[in-house]
């Protein structure tokens, strides 16, 4: 009888308690090491707190934070045009964020989406430079394939040092961002420069047949569908396939995964290829759907913002869509405050702050106040 | 001056910010906390220096402000990773993103404005007549000498003092250090903060010597190169000196070759430091496969006292 | 009556809902060796951790040399002269022995060569006084486990402890090394120090201690003089009921040869040779025990057999087929099951639920997935059945398994492995950290596998467990099998000598 009872008591493991500083007291903070999920409201709260913090910085600049935020909101979601722009920006964010989410599932810290996107954009542009004559039925799929392949290749360049030489993928993927951006500079200032471009850096404008179809006469293009389909596939793969199961296992405990014969290196390789490929696709849709030419600054840091998009969404498919739209709005809102004399980097500052509060929030919600049993 | 002397001098100039940032990284990581926020911290150090220097005209005040601001950010990093036990990779990333955003926002006001002065140089006239050495060491600036002193001081601190022993113990085995009466959390806070200050100074040095004005994203990945250099230097300050100057030389090599009229487009020359960082890390990975890498054993693992599973 | 140097009264310590120490009274005298006896999880380590400041008591009173004290941290304990040698040594592996010993000393900021030299001398003298020999200049990770323990002991002595607590000190030692340890402890006792050791081994307690206290399920059961008691009484006190110390008789079920390992060698990390021309065989329906002190290649042996590690030379035949390369998938497919040493580290994914954890070995099979798509509903049903059949107590199929108790986690792991109907089970320390009931359950499962005609390779450090279950016991030393004993001839002392690397004449050295 007593044996049985002891078993039931130890069924659920105790919460471990951290150092409770100072003298013993009736209440103390305890850290819940077992619960891994934080409540749904932490992302919401962290966005709010980040807004509050940045309000301070805005006030320092002599502006009324409320006016600034109102302006940003209006610019991003207030008008039809703003909303379209927001969605246009959300497309690359969603694609890159999805790629990052896939990699982060198994703790592969890819921060090279910016470079992978750039590689995709360069490769897609190469089609327009070298095969200007082929019909749209062929050229757009070709751009698509080359863009994805270039991004995937760029991702592979991060995966190989990681797998075979044990090089931290954070450093590699970031270094490769700079390499890709310098390559972009080379092409748009060097061999691909538009001869009629008044000596401005940038490739010639794409022919109409090389541009992605738009949706209903707006600037919104078919890339949105690509992104949504990609998210749907991601959801189905993660939820129902063996591959999704393997990623789940590796993400939860890589050692156990190895002990059970799940080939981790192959998955890292695959995940980086997918991650890079999705970012490359983002690069392709940007040049073909939005800018219609290759130029410097085709990405205002989509690759970095996408990291926060993925983290805010907690790698969840539906969350990805929501946070991509939110951050698309943040970028557009950032542009709109330029009219009242604030730099657009307001939005970058906000992004960083949101990530900070998210990280802190995830952990703080795992502490709880408990009464000391005495 | 001949080419070699020029290159050496340029290596030291371009290498000093890298060295300071690497030393900061070494201090942080020796205490067991991963420092991936170097890029953001350097940017914050640089922008603070510019703002305060341009507004007040006082260089000392500017450097102090840079150190203070980055120390504060270091404490935030310490709070997240030591007290809240957050994922240190994400913490560093957040630091970098937040630092780039905030520095771009704050620096907009002074972007492109020239600084009202330069770092004072320390003339050592007695060295002048000696060839090469005289040309290199005769007129180095304050922060470069400070970085030399720091290398020696940190080397002695780590290997010859009780504090260094405590630092190594905290980074390798915090549980042991705790049982031996060493205050693990306090030490981690201290070194993360001090390390962040050094990285902030690296940013200040960058803006004062390498680039003469503030520009958004001025460090261009130098912070990340420093993260790589910490591994390259195997968490050892003296090696950090050599590694930083090697990369400083690479960094300025592109520029030099352009001056010499090289046919290679400058964009490819500018890629050299980034590509070499990856290649060097790959080489190290290949050479040291299956060997202990000198990484502090508890790097990235938050310490919790009452562990009971 | 001698002076009472440690006195603990009404000590309570809870972890969440678990009462690890329930109103415990304990006292020890200066100049005695006092043993604290109890099974794993009885609370003896907790009580000693309270005394040494690692944990803080919820209630109760501690007196040291008659004065009431508050011990809030290891530092407080050190100041009061209490030093503890932990089961998992508290040494920094990258530092040398001397650096470890002086760690935490706040005096003398500068540590030049003269200072280091002086410390070397001081420490060497201290070690010699208590008959301990330690290499002072090597990093600790290069030392053997026994040497590391001696460094720990010198450390506590150096820090001026006169109350010395040793937590399960002999669990990592060969019988010979244990002898040496007890000689040192007696020297300490003669110098008037209080020596407290916790253990679950009755024999060594009876041989070496002056008094002993027995704990069971967080309660102090009795304190006795060693000369007044015997093994049977202690066992009864520890377990709480009459126990039979006899071995079970087992029906012989041994069949044909299943696994034949012939002279294989393998490297461990950092290029150390872990297996050195090792040979062994396992038959169907047979449990082969592998005894040995930790770190003699047991881990690597298990890894080679389960496809995790490649071997350099030699050959392996399994089920009549030669094994060519190390592949976990092939090992699983050919019917090798593996219960790894640390279930939460390498067996289960703690943040996932029972379904995902049960599927790890079989998700690729036709029964559980098709064309890359998992059969979710069927897998759930299947998991539910397994959880019921193996009596895993879990609040739900999706509850993260890290919330289950150790015994239930192990049951889940066994459920996963056993349901594959393995031909060979490689089980490494399968009962480590489990309470008696759970351990008995695991033993039952291993015996069922044996009865069903599977071969079992049981790697364990627990000689009692090995002698109780194995048909044959192999002793591993330095990467090879030094000797073999059958179930009938197994003898504790011989095994001990073999574990220490002393081969006898009658053993066939393979």
Automatic annotation (TrEMBL), chain A:
One of the Pfam families matching this protein, by short name: BPD_transp_2
InterPro entries reported in the protein's UniProt record: ABC_transp_permease (IPR001851)
Domain of life where this protein originates: Bacteria
Main location: membrane
Transport among keywords: no
Any GO CC annotation of this UniProt entry: plasma membrane
Membrane is among the record's keywords: yes
Protein's name in the database: ABC transporter permease
Keyword annotations of the record: Cell membrane, Membrane, Transmembrane, Transmembrane helix
Membrane topology: Multi-pass membrane protein
Residue stretches spanning the membrane: 40-60, 80-104, 111-131, 137-158, 170-189, 220-238, 268-288, 294-313, 318-337, 349-369
TrEMBL record, chain B:
Protein localization: Cell membrane
Major localization listed first in the record, in broad terms: membrane
TM regions (residue ranges): 6-26, 33-54, 60-80, 130-158, 189-211, 267-286
One GO cellular component, as annotated: plasma membrane
Membrane topology: Multi-pass membrane protein
Record keyword Nucleotide-binding present: no
Keyword annotations from UniProtKB, A to Z: Cell membrane, Membrane, Transmembrane, Transmembrane helix
Signal peptide: none
GO molecular function: transmembrane transporter activity
The keyword Cell cycle appears for this protein: no
Pfam families: BPD_transp_2
Species for this entry: Paenibacillus mellifer
Protein name, entry field: ABC transporter permease
Automatic annotation (TrEMBL), chain C:
ABC transporter domain boundaries: 6-242, 259-503
Keywords in alphabetical order: ATP-binding, Cell membrane, Membrane, Nucleotide-binding, Repeat, Translocase, Transport
Domain of life: Bacteria
Pfam families to which the protein is assigned, alphabetical: ABC_tran
Entry-linked InterPro entries: AAA+_ATPase, ABC_carbohydrate_import_ATPase, ABC_transporter-like_ATP-bd, ABC_transporter-like_CS, P-loop_NTPase
Membrane topology summary: Peripheral membrane protein
GO cellular component, one term: plasma membrane
Cell compartment(s), UniProt: Cell membrane
Molecular function per GO: ATP binding; ATP hydrolysis activity
PROSITE patterns the UniProt entry points to: ABC_TRANSPORTER_1, ABC_TRANSPORTER_2
Principal location class: membrane
PANTHER family from the UniProt entry: CARBOHYDRATE TRANSPORT ATP-BINDING PROTEIN MG119-RELATED (PTHR43790), GALACTOFURANOSE TRANSPORTER ATP-BINDING PROTEIN YTFR (PTHR43790:SF9)
Name under which the protein is recorded: ABC transporter ATP-binding protein
């Amino acid at each position: 009888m007593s044996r049985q009872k002891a078993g039931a008591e130890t069924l659920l493991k105790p919460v471990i308690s951290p150092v409770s500083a100072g003298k013993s007291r009736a209440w103390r903070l305890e850290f819940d090491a077992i619960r891994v999920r934080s409540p749904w409201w932490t992302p919401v709260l962290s966005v709010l707190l980040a807004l509050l913090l940045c309000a301070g910085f805005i006030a320092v600049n002599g502006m009324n934070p409320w006016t600034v935020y109102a302006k940003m909101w209006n610019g991003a979601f207030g008008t039809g045009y703003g909303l379209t722009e927001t969605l246009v920006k959300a497309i690359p964010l969603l694609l890159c964020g999805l790629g990052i989410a896939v990699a982060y599932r198994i703790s592969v810290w890819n921060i090279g989406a910016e470079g992978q996107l750039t590689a995709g954009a360069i490769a897609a542009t190469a089609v327009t430079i070298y095969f200007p004559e082929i019909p749209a039925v062929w050229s757009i799929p070709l751009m698509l394939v080359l863009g994805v392949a270039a991004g995937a290749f760029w991702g592979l360049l991060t995966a190989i040092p990681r797998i075979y030489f044990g090089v931290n993928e954070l450093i590699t993927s970031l270094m490769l961002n700079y390499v890709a951006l310098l390559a972009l500079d080379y092409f748009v200032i060097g061999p691909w420069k538009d001869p009629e471009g008044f000596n401005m850096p940038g490739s010639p404008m794409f022919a109409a047949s090389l541009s992605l179809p738009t949706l209903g006469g707006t600037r919104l293009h078919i890339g949105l569908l690509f992104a949504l389909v990609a998210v749907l596939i991601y959801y189905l793969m993660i939820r129902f396939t063996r591959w999704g199961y393997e990623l789940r296992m590796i993400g939860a405990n890589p050692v156990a995964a190895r002990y059970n014969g799940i080939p981790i290196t192959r998955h890292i390789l695959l995940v980086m290829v997918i991650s890079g490929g999705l970012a490359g696709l983002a690069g392709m849709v940007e040049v073909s759907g939005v800018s219609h030419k290759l130029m410097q600054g085709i990405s205002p840091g989509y690759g970095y913002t996408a990291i926060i998009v993925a983290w805010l969404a907690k790698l969840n498919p539906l969350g990805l869509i929501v946070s991509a739209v939110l951050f698309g709005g943040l970028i557009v809102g950032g542009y709109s405050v330029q009219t009242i004399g604030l730099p657009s980097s307001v939005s970058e500052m906000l992004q960083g702050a949101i990530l900070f509060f998210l990280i802190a929030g995830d952990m703080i919600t795992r502490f709880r106040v408990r009464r000391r049993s005495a | 001056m001949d080419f070699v002397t020029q290159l050496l001098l340029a290596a030291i100039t371009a290498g000093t910010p890298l060295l300071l940032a690497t030393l900061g990284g070494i201090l942080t990581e020796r205490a067991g906390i991963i420092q991936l926020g170097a890029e953001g911290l350097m940017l914050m150090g640089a922008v603070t220096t510019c703002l305060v220097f341009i507004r007040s005209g006082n260089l000392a005040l500017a450097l102090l402000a840079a150190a203070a601001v980055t120390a504060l950010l270091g404490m935030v990093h310490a709070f997240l990773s030591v007290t809240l036990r957050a994922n240190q990779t994400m913490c560093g990333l957040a630091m970098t993103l937040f630092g780039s955003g905030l520095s771009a926002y704050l620096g907009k006001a002074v972007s492109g404005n020239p600084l009202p002065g330069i770092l004072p140089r320390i003339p050592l006239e007695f060295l002048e007549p000696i060839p090469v050495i005289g040309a290199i060491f005769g007129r180095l600036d304050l922060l470069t000498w400070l970085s030399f002193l720091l290398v020696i001081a940190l080397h002695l601190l780590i290997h010859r003092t009780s504090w260094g022993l405590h630092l190594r113990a905290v980074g390798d085995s915090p549980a042991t250090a705790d049982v031996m009466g060493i205050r693990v959390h306090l030490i981690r806070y201290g070194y993360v903060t001090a390390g962040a200050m050094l990285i902030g100074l690296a940013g200040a040095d960058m803006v004062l010597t390498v680039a003469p004005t503030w520009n958004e994203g001025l460090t261009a990945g130098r912070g990340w190169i420093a993260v790589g250099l910490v591994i390259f230097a195997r968490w050892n300050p003296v090696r950090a000196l050599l590694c930083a100057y090697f990369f400083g030389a690479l960094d300025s090599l592109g520029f030099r070759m352009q001056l010499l009229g090289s046919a290679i487009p400058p964009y490819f020359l500018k890629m050299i430091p980034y590509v070499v960082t990856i290649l060097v890390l790959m080489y190290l990975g290949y050479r040291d496969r299956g060997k202990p890498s000198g990484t502090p054993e508890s790097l990235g693992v938050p310490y919790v006292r009452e562990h009971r599973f | 009556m001698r002076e009472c140097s440690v006195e603990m009264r009404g000590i309570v310590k809870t972890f969440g809902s678990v009462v690890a120490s329930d109103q415990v009274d304990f006292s020890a005298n200066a100049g005695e060796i006092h043993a604290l006896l109890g099974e794993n999880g009885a609370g003896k380590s907790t009580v000693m951790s309270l005394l040494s400041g690692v944990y803080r008591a919820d209630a109760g009173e501690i007196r040291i040399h008659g004065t009431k004290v508050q011990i809030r941290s290891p530092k407080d304990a050190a100041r009061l002269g209490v030093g503890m040698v932990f089961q998992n040594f508290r040494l920094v592996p990258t530092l040398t022995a001397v650096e470890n010993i002086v760690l935490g000393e706040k005096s003398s900021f500068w540590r030049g060569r003269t200072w280091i030299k002086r410390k070397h001398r001081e420490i060497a003298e201290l070690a010699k006084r208590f008959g301990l020999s330690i290499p002072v200049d090597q990093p600790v990770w290069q030392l053997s486990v026994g040497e590391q323990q001696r460094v720990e002991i010198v450390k506590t002595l150096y820090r001026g402890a006169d109350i010395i607590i040793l937590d399960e000190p002999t669990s990592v030692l060969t019988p010979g090394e244990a002898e040496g340890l007890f000689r040192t402890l007696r020297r300490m006792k003669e110098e008037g120090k209080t020596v407290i050791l916790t253990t679950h081994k009755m024999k060594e307690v009876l041989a070496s201690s002056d008094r002993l206290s027995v704990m069971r399920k967080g309660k102090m059961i009795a304190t006795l003089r060693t000369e007044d008691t015997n093994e049977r009484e202690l066992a009864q006190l520890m377990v709480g009921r009459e126990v039979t110390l006899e071995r079970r008789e087992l029906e012989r079920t041994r069949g044909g040869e299943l696994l034949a390992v012939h002279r294989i060698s393998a490297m461990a990390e950092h290029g150390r040779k872990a297996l050195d021309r090792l040979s062994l065989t396992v038959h169907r329906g047979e449990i082969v025990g592998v005894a040995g002190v930790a770190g003699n290649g047991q881990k690597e042996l298990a890894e080679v057999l389960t496809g995790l590690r490649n071997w350099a030379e030699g050959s392996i035949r399994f089920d009549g087929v030669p094994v060519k390369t190390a592949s976990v998938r092939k090992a699983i497919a050919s019917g090798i099951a593996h219960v790894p040493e640390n279930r939460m580290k390498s067996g289960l994914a703690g943040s996932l639920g029972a379904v995902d954890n049960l599927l790890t070995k079989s998700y690729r099979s036709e029964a559980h997935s098709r064309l890359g798509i998992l059969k979710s509903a069927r897998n759930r049903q299947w998991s539910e059945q397994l959880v019921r059949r193996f009596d895993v107590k879990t609040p739900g199929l999706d509850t993260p398994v890290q919330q289950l108790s150790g015994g239930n986690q192990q049951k889940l792991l066994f459920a996963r492995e056993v349901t594959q109907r393995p031909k060979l089970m490689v089980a490494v320390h399968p009962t480590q950290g489990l309470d008696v009931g759970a351990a008995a359950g695991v033993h039952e499962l291993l015996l069922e596998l044996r009865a069903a005609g599977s071969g079992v390779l049981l790697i364990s450090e627990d000689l009692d467990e090995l002698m109780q279950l194995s048909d044959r016991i192999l002793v591993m030393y330095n990467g090879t099998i030094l000797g073999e004993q059958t179930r009938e001839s197994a003898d504790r002392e011989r095994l001990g000598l073999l574990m220490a690397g002393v081969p006898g004449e009658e053993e066939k050295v393979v």
